Amino acid sequence: MISLIAADAQHPALSEVSGQESCGVTLIIVPPALLGTWEEELATHVVPQTLLWRLHHGKCRLSDISELEDSKLVLTTYHTVSAEWRNGTGLESSILFTTRWRRVVLDEAHFIRNRESQMARAVCAIESVSRWAVTGTPLQNHLNDLSALVKFLGVYPYSEKRVFDGDISRHWKDGNADEAVKRLKRLAGCLVLRRPKGTVQLPPRRDQVCHVEFVPEERDLYNQVRTRAIERLDQALVQGSSFTSVLQQIEAMRLVCNLGLLYPTRHDVSSANKWPETSQSALNLCLQMSGIQCHNCSCNLDASLYDTGSSRAFFAQCLRFICPNCVRGRPQCGHDPPCAIAPVSTSASSLEEPPLSTSLGGGCTSAYRPTKVRALVEDLQAVPGHVKCVVFSTWRMTLDVVEAGLIQAGISTLRFDGKVPQRDRQSVIDRFRNDPSSRVLLLTLSCGAVGLTLTVASRAYLMEPHWNPTLEDQALARIHRIGQRQEVTTVRFYVRDSFEVNVVNNQQCKRDLASILLAPSGTAVDNAGHLQRLRALI
User: Fold this and answer.
1) 336 in a structural domain
2) Beta pairing partners, 104
3) How many structural domains comprise the chain?
């Protein structure tokens, strides 16, 4: 993209060729965490004073087109665009929407993969002569992910959801997968400029799987939680009741795989009258497993995780979700009598919290270490001291236990998660890069899976499998990218004979779908069928 923008100076103005006037400036929209990365890349690859750029974010905001004089590039964030759009009320007051840009570039473009989200609508409202959507994961869970990108690019008539669904999605829903794949590939072939990793010379990468065995006491605890999960499933199947507690038990099984005997079993049971306390964890698990849709407008919430506006969403105990755009007055699920409903957060950082915000108490100070943590410490101790490593987990609680185990072993660590303020995150990355004593960086997937360049490290660990395999792939790619000069090793931890094995099998199904640029459309599934599949997995 930098080369493309720099080439503008060597070619006639686009208005002379196409007749479309513009300000001649490129607007690049990035996730907040990537602002520093873009500034670093510009400083590295651009000769000083030859391509000037401006920042439009936080306190450094532009107010008038005259401020762009001599500039060729403006950096801003998705959240800034969304905040200034404000459901269309900011179109006349923000330079983002009163300017016709030379081009608009979306970095990590899958951030707008829900075409009905405020963020996607705000980005699509920006005027430009040309548009680019840059992403390594155009599809993650649903075919509609690609539909949103086509809308942004303005590819008529497929920019209209009705046409996209009728010409492509309908064939998939009707069981004519071959025709749907053929049409999707034909459309993608006209739009996608693919740059696979094979076109870039990178050092070798070795991907390892570390299967660990529970010690007997951990296995006993896991079996207890598993038994409770099956009992809750059978109860829900027979009585037709809500399976919220089933979801919580599944998440408990995953946490036991990480925490072992440190898992706080006192939080296992939640009653129906505590829905306000448990709704967030139930929503998080639904999002991780397959994503859910708004009960009213059918937009996919799993594509809205990065919208950070103040609007509230709601989640009912029957697992019906009401998105922020559909919240009016006192929302209800539509059942009679209505089910319990509670406000929830749709921000990415909310996924870092384990169910019920459980606390380890003084567990981290004991001599006991869970099996996975012991395996991680032993592996790190066998690695030369100059090799830097990164460790990823879905939950901060897991990183707390990992951090305690590494400190006990005399291995220094740094943290990068949702509790680290945005203003301090770049300094954490800089210290990891430049301080030889900072060997290990601990990151949550919601913060560290996208956009960061961590090529100073050559070894990455994933503490547990995630329901979304593309998130795993993005995280491990932080160390295997342009700029890496060392051989790279990635290690994924799984517990043998546990629910984690089934999560991995579920991942493979999604990988197969993504490989042909296709994913399920996300239509609703009846509870009984869903419960039967969950029981088979357990």
Assistant:
1) yes
2) 27, 131
3) 3
User: Is residue 334, in this structure, part of any structural domain at all?
Assistant: yes
Distance between CA 462 and CA 209 in Å, rounded? 10
List the one residue out of 227, 233, 237, 235 whose CA is nearest residue 265: 227
H/E element, 316: strand 313-316
**Residue 54 CB coordination number (10 Å):** 17
Rg (CA), the chain: 24
Strands of the sheet containing 313-316, edge to edge, are: 321-322, 313-316, 341-344
Taking the complete model, does pTM exceed 0.85, yes or no? no
Q: Give domain status of residue 535, yes or no.
A: no
Which residue, chain included where needed, has tokens 């390594």? 136
How do beta strands 321-322 and 313-316 pair? Answer: antiparallel
Q: What whole-number distance in Å separates Cα of residue 258 and Cα of residue 358?
A: 14
Task: Read off the CATH number of the domain in which 30 is found.
Answer: 3.40.50.10810
CA atoms within 13 A on the CB side of 144: 22
* Other beta carbons less than 10 A from residue 171's beta carbon: 18
- Whether 319 and 292 have beta carbons less than 8 Å apart is answered as yes
Q: Can you read off the two tokens belonging to residue 493?
A: 């931890």
Walking along the chain (538 residues) 10 residues at a time, the average pLDDT comes out as 83 55 90 84 86 90 88 92 75 87 93 82 93 84 78 92 87 79 83 76 94 96 92 78 71 91 64 69 72 67 48 79 72 79 73 55 68 97 95 92 94 90 86 94 86 92 90 90 93 95 77 50 44 51
φ/ψ (deg, to 5) at 208 = -115, 150
Count the residues in the chain.
Answer: 538
DSSP label at residue 169 = I
User: Is 29 contained in some domain?
Assistant: yes
Which alpha helices (H) appear in 12-94, and where do they start and end? 14-18, 35-45, 78-85
